[in-house]
Amino acid sequence: MICPRCGFDNVPGADICSGCMLDLAPLDMPGALDRVQNSLMADPVGKLRPHPPVNVPVTATLGEAMRSMIEAEVGTVLVVDDDGQLRGILSERDLLMRLTVDAAVDYRALLVADFMTPDPETVTVTDTLARALHRMDVGGYRHLPVVDGYKPVGVISARDLIRHITRLCRE
Q1: Is it the case that residue 103 has pLDDT exceeding 90?
Q2: Class (C level, CATH) for 45-170
Q3: How far is CA 118 from CA 44, 94, 101, in A?
Q4: Burial code of 82-94, b = ≥16 C-beta within 10 A, e = fewer?
C-alpha cells in the first residue's frame, strides 16, 4: 500500500508505514460499493427486528418442543436452563436429520437435550448484519439466536436477511 501521507510504497499487508510510521490498518478496510453492501457492513441485527424467541426448558420432551413450534408457527425453539440462559437450539432440520423412523419408539417422550444443537452460534442486536450472515453461511444455519449476555432476546432467520436485502434492491 502506498502511504497517503508520505507516498512510501509499503510491503502489501503492512499495518504501519515504513516511511512515516502512519497506522495503515484503518486505511485498508473494505468499503461498501452499493446500498446492500453498506447495509450489511453497517446495520445492526436489531434493524431486522428479531422475532421473539420461543423457549423450552432443557428438560422438555420433543413432544412439548414440537407443540411449541406448531403453536407459535416457528421452525425453531431455543432451549434454556432454569436461569433462562441459552443452552441449545432445536430446529425442524434437527428433527428430520436426527430422528429415526421406528414405530415402536414414542418420539414425543424423548428429551430435547438429546436432539438439540448445544451451545449454538449467536449474535447480539448490535452485531452487524454481515456478521450474522457470515455465521449462518459458515455454520450452515438458517436460524440464529439473538442474545443479551447468555439470555435469548430474539431469533433471526436467513429469510429475514433475504427479505431485508430484497427490500434494499427494490429501493
Answers
A1: no
A2: alpha beta
A3: 25, 11, 23
A4: eeeebbbbbbeeb
Amino acid symbol at 37: Q
Write out pLDDT tens, residues 40-92.
Answer: 989 999 999 999 999 999 999 999 999 999 999 999 999 999 999 999 999 99
Whether pTM > 0.70 for this model: the answer is yes
Contacts of 94 (CB under 8 A, 6+ apart): 115, 116, 117
The three grid cell numbers given for residue 47, joined into one nine-digit string: 434493524
Q: Which backbone phi and psi does 58 adopt, to 5 degrees?
A: -60, -20
> What are 167's three cell numbers?
427490500
> Treating both helix axes as pointing N-terminal to C-terminal, what angle do 35-42 and 129-139 enclose, rounded to 10 degrees?
90
Length of the chain: 171
C-alpha cell at position 46: 436489531
Which amino acid, 4? P
